[in-house]
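Final report, closing paragraph on structural work. Over the funding period we assembled a curated collection of sequence-structure pairs, and we close with a single example.
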Amino acid sequence: MDTDALTAGLLQELRAAKPYPALSLTMPTHRHAPDNAQDAVRLRNLLSEAHNRLEADPAVSRDTCAAIKRQLERAVDELDARRALDSLVLLATADEFQIWRLPRTAPERVVLSDSYLTRNLVAAKAQARPFWALTVAADHAALFSGTTESAQEAHVGGFPLTAPREEFNPQRMERTGDTPSNFANEDTKLFLRTVDEKLRAVLATDPRPLYLVGIAPALALFDEAGQCAKDAVGRVTKGAPADNAPRDLLTELRPALEARRAHFAKEIDGRLDAARSRKAFAGGLDEVWAAAREGRVGLLAVEEHYQQTVRVDQEHLKPVAGDVVDPADESAREDIVDELVEAALDGGAEVYFVADDLLKGHGRIAAELRF
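Its predicted structure, as stored:
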């Protein structure tokens, strides 16, 4: 699965307590050759470590161990190296497995616990900035689930929707002297009100920024249909054919996506400046980590590619130089930034990833504090 599949409901399921052990395996991957040649070897080594950990754990029965191994084998059989992104997460219990491909790197790790490890999933979704895009025409509406890197048509909430075909009415044509305009037709207005109603239900279940795509008359009529158009954060005025390819749609949306990103970068910079003025600001990993643990973070800003391995020492974080970390060192945190993002979101904070070097003067991570 990709990050846009991580809904609030699914995240709750992943975090729910499970019969021990719930196994989480994470590792960095590579999108292209020749770097991706190492991924298979790395995965094989991590699977071997997972098997050894399961066999050595006295709390894991022989039957449970065998069942989880079978789930991992099924997961590996389904892996497609051509779809690799920046990291891979395998989750498995005796009864299921899940494969997640993330556009954000994650460290090598095997974790046995009573729930799945979710911090890397949560951080990757926050960075990917998922959105909804509705292509709307007089007789058709399709919903697309997108991120900064991909989009695919979403078959949720009744979408795609197609208006019922109107029967040819010669008597009506005789009265009007012409065929009626689609955009003056009451049936079209009724159809777009239905689209609005279905879309509101989707947004209530999975809130995301909404973009609209369609020709000007269709968008104008959709504006009148209900609430959704008023809440849209961007729109592209062009034809929206029923067979619109997701890749083409993402290309058309790119200017609107970049405009929204630039708007947020400016807004975040202003909010952080104001926070400094009123002494409600935290900058750098150590300060932000302490504030997040206390539930004080109202807004968290992180540079896109910022990651840091640290060691927890007497309630403080100390950066670790180099890439090699002893897996037995429980004080080391290889993905402390992802952990911070998850903690901030759990505390109700807004989280935004910004361009690299935008927060260079603040340790590459900064927060506006509630108190």
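The first helix runs from residue 8 to 15. The radius of gyration is 24 Å. We thank the funder for supporting this effort.
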